[in-house]
Design a protein that fits this description.
heterodimer, A: alpha+beta, two-stranded antiparallel sheet, 9 strands, 26% helix, globular, B: alpha/beta, eight-stranded parallel beta barrel, 30 strands, 29% helix
Chain lengths: 203, 757
């Protein structure tokens, strides 16, 4: 069973901004960042995305604001934290990277499980609605082309995934501020900072 | 059975097993059935254990005798009769294709390529791939010398595959697994024609195609999404082939004049490059998934052969997965009887295709060659001179011999690098690992070359002091560096590194060793090690930082990282080195004090030390000092690279056992206790010819076994011993100067350790 086709406008996350880790500005967060940077460098093999992050910190509830020192000691992190960490990793490799926000189709009956799990952790379940979910990723940019890295899955996403569970209903590349810059994501032209609904055949 | 094939199309489909490692026949048949509902489909296989025989997609089954016992000319005539009767044949097994291409006088209705095309797609070179946007991963024939093979494996970080001539591949992780794999695959396939190929990290993809008389009819691309433990496809996605790839394939198919199905298997590396692993002369087992996606390739072959027009294929989906189904067994072909549980023959565990048996049959028909001899080691001038001087004097054996010229050459290399000072403002030093071989001559050579002594115990420290190393030229590390109690160094050491946070904490409470640089050993984060302080969590990192912060303000800080390079290969070791430099920078930043000394090692294979490490020392030092601005000393510990070639073991042949099958086993007076590292890396073996020259002994399957009653007392199992070898002859086993010397033990000599009470 699936709910009505989601639209960005109908969901509360149209106004969401990409997640950013906070920093206490003290030794705790400085040490956490230093550890993270060295760890990422050790895990890097010269190519590809930082797949180690979601292995080290499996997907689960995070409470926001989330500080660096808390994130690095967490047993689980949500997709926003994964996104923020991946951005940091790509930047450290000298790659231009921007946040990506997605609306994905999901199973209707998964909602109470997510609400329960996030509720138990005193984390906000606002990302999940009936049949849809808000998700965060990041995009590497090179010569006008974008590749979208889903740090929670550890995989590069395709804009042609338009049907079924986890398919992409809408996407915004580059954060919440509209820009005049356009990027090409595997044949789909998108304006940075603007939500776009993806439809079959649109790419 | 009701006839559902009023028209003339009859297709024989071979290789129909459906298991975790399926053959393509069932998929081919399902696609044919979809396109030609009234066709007569006959399943062909070579064992009643081929599960697809029982699929209802087949109208008939034609089970042959196993390849091992089949009369090939009889089968050849039977197939030809089937083809002459107007049927088409879709082969599903690589070697069956090879045999049919050579055996059938008129294979026109068999959907298979010719012998010339098969030669062009044979592994590992796959010459037919020229012009395609793929490269062939580096490989080396297993007929090369063990020394070269070991070097290839190290070069690729022991991420390599040992492969058979047709299929079957074994992952190699170290030298023992390589040797085991070589023996296993040679025995299995009845051939020495194996090769070693580097592993490519990336996504596994393939392109399946069909062609008729050189015309590419269609092709599809498949990405594996999930695989079985054997690496076989379990789920995937079928899409169009990239246009550039398809056009290049079309040209190759025309050149090859290809007929039949085919599959190119490749890896898409993280950087997007494609690395071709295999070009199979038959459809893949997932071929029916292409039909779901609107590309019925088997049907196109029928149409191209003029045997009918396929029904249109509706597009269903481009993704597929496999499922496991129970199906009724045909009454005509019941299951074989249940084998008695203690029957070790294990027929049920074999793939029912019987390809290994066919491989043996095919090779039986080729001219027999003598067992190939892998080249022996070259006797370089320094070694020739050493052997002449120390091994030709008839002294009692077994005897470990110091090789003076070979040793001097090694230490001279280090001295030359130190003279050049490649580190610029950072002083480069080399540590001689005393544990590799504390022989006085080697210690003296290390001292003369300007090396430091790296010690792992107080006992070793006192040995280094005794042989002239002043305290300031000693570096101490190890899990029990201060064992046993006794006199101290008498002055500050150059450096001392605690092996664990607990050890460092103890130093801080009770007083550390007096050393210019004090620090801690770091444990690697990407592979297992029992040594050093773990960095795998921020808590552990914070603990290390806290401990280092507790050092007195005037104490200079150093960091230590050791992991054997020959286990990782030099390229991966350099990756780890870069990671360690970043860890050092993170520690420096968090502790708020500069890292003044970095000590890196170890376990370098001698050739890698010479060719890979020495030329890069300047770049490595520059990289480290760029990240660590206060760095003033950079120590490298080559480990066994210095000592390993410096000694050899002379042994005398006690008995030569020649088997009726030609296998030779020589019993010698040395034993595994004299050469404990024998299983772990190749040791070069030398002998003096009748002409009085020293020559290297080549590789084969002869064994050199030791004198003691232990099953493991096998010094070599991959030599080609000379025909004229006899009792009393002398052999010299090289590369025995490091752990072979320092870890040698008494066994079978009637001796017991003195300390026993």
């Amino acid at each position: 069973m699936r709910a009505a086709e989601p639209t960005v406008e109908s969901a509360p996350w149209a106004e969401f901004v990409p997640s950013v880790l906070s920093d206490h500005g003290t030794e705790c967060c400085a040490m956490a960042r230093a550890w993270y940077t060295a760890m990422d460098r050790s895990m890097w093999r010269g190519e590809g995305g930082p797949a180690w992050i979601s292995r080290k910190f499996p997907w689960g509830p995070s409470k926001w604001p989330l500080f660096w020192c808390e994130a690095m000691e967490a047993e689980e992190l949500d997709c926003g934290a994964h996104q923020a960490l991946s951005m940091e990793a790509f930047r450290a490799r000298g790659i231009r990277v921007v946040p990506v926000q997605l609306v994905q189709r999901q199973e209707v009956h998964h909602l109470p499980h997510w609400h329960g799990r996030w509720g138990d952790a005193s984390a906000s379940p606002a990302w999940a609605r009936e049949g849809v979910a808000y998700h965060e990723a990041c995009a590497t940019l090179q010569e006008g082309r974008a590749e979208v890295w889903d740090p929670t899955v550890g995989a590069w996403l395709s804009p042609r995934h338009l049907e079924g569970v986890r398919s992409i209903a809408a996407v915004r590349i580059g954060g919440a501020t509209a820009s005049d810059e356009f990027v090409d994501w595997r044949g789909v032209r998108l304006r940075m900072g603007v939500w776009a609904s993806l439809e079959a055949g649109g790419g | 059975m009701a006839q559902r094939f009023p028209q003339a199309l009859t297709c024989y489909v071979s290789g129909v097993h459906s298991g975790p490692n399926p053959s393509p026949g069932l998929g081919v048949a399902r696609s044919l059935r979809q396109a030609f509902p009234h066709a007569r489909l006959v399943a062909v296989d070579y064992s009643v254990e081929s599960s697809g025989l029982h699929s209802e997609v087949f109208d008939e089954v034609w089970v042959q005798r196993p390849w091992k016992e089949m009369r090939l000319p009889v089968y050849q005539a039977a197939i030809q009769a089937v083809l002459d009767g107007g049927a088409l044949w879709f082969p599903g097994q690589d070697l069956e294709v090879e045999w049919m291409a050579g055996a059938l006088p008129d294979p026109a209705r068999a959907m298979l390529p010719g012998l010339a095309a098969l030669e062009r797609v044979a592994k590992p070179a796959i010459f037919a791939s020229e012009g395609l946007p793929v490269s062939i991963p580096e490989w080396i024939g297993a007929d090369r010398s063990d020394w070269d093979l070991h070097a290839f494996c190290r070069e690729h970080g022991w991420r390599v595959w040992l492969k058979g001539p047709n299929y079957e591949a074994m992952k190699v992780r170290d030298w023992p697994s390589f040797r085991h794999g070589r023996d296993f695959l040679s025995e299995l396939w009845g051939t020495e024609q194996l090769f070693v190929q580097r592993h490519v990290v990336g996504a596994e993809e393939s392109v399946a195609f069909c062609a008729y008389r050189g015309e590419l009819l269609d092709c599809v691309h498949m990405t594996k999404h999930t695989q079985t433990a054997e690496g076989k496809t379990w789920a995937g996605a079928v899409n169009e082939v990239e246009p550039g790839f398809a056009e290049a394939l079309r040209a190759r198919i025309a050149e090859l004049n290809w007929t039949g199905g085919g599959e190119l298997e490749y890896v898409r590396a993280l950087d997007g490059t494609l690395h071709l692993i295999d070009w199979n002369p038959r459809f893949p087992a997932w071929i029916h998934a292409a039909s779901f996606a609107g590309h019925n390739l088997p049907a196109l072959l029928v149409e191209a052969a003029g045997m009918g027009t396929p029904q249109p294929v509706p597009f269903q989906t481009n993704q597929f997965t496999r499922i496991v189904l129970e199906v009724p067994v045909r009454n005509t072909h019941p299951l074989p009887a249940v084998r008695q549980a203690n029957d070790q023959s294990g027929v049920g565990s074999k793939h029912p295709s019987g390809m290994t048996e066919l491989s043996r049959r095919l090779r039986e028909n080729r001219p027999r060659e003598d067992e190939p001899v892998r080249p022996g080691p070259v006797v370089v001038p320094a070694m020739a001179s050493d052997l002449e001087e120390v091994a030709g004097n008839g002294a009692a054996t077994p005897r470990r011999m110091f090789l003076p010229r070979t040793s001097r050459e090694r230490f001279a290399q280090v001295e030359a690098v130190l003279d050049a000072q490649p580190g610029g403002t950072v002083e480069v030093g080399f540590g001689y690992s005393v544990k590799t071989n504390p022989h006085p001559t080697l210690l003296a050579l290390a001292d003369q070359a300007g090396m430091f002594a790296e010690v792992i115990s107080s006992a070793e420290m006192r040995r280094a002091l005794e042989f002239g190393f002043p305290p300031e030229r000693i570096i101490m590390n190890g899990p029990a560096s201060q064992w046993p109690d006794g006199p101290g160094a008498g002055g500050p050491l150059m450096a001392a590194f605690a092996d664990s946070p607990q050890a460092f904490e103890r130093w801080m409470c009770h007083g550390p060793p007096e050393a210019r640089y004090l620090g801690i050993r770091l444990r690697p984060v990407t592979f297992e090690s029992r040594f050093g302080s773990g960095l795998g969590s921020v808590e552990r990192f914070a603990h290390i930082v806290k401990l280092l912060k507790a050092m007195p303000a005037e104490q200079e800080m150093g960091l230590h990282f050791h992991f054997a390079s020959d286990v990782l290969g030099p390229a991966r070791w350099r990756e780890v080195f870069e990671g360690v430099v970043h860890w050092a920078a993170a520690i420096e930043q968090s502790v708020g004090r500069g890292v003044r000394c970095l000590d890196m090692g170890g376990g370098y294979f001698p050739d890698d030390f010479d060719r890979e490490l020495l030329p890069r020392i300047g770049a490595m030092t520059a990289s480290a000092s760029a990240m660590l601005p206060e760095l003033e000393r950079f120590f490298l510990e080559p480990g066994k690279a210095m000592a390993q070639p410096s000694m050899a073991l002379a042994t005398t042949v006690l008995e030569v056992r020649r088997g009726s099958d030609g296998a030779v086993e020589a019993v010698v007076d040395a034993a595994i206790s004299d050469l404990p590292m024998a299983p772990f890396y190749p040791h070069r073996v030398y002998r003096r010819t009748r002409q009085g020259e020293w020559e290297g002994v080549g590789g084969g399957s002869d064994r050199l076994v030791g004198r003691i009653c232990m099953e493991t007392d096998i010094l070599a199992s991959d030599l080609k011993l000379p025909e004229e070898l006899k009792a009393g002859d002398r052999l010299v086993i090289g590369d025995a100067g490091a752990y072979d010397a320092s870890m040698a033990y008494n066994f079978g000599r009637g001796l017991l350790e003195d300390a026993c009470c």
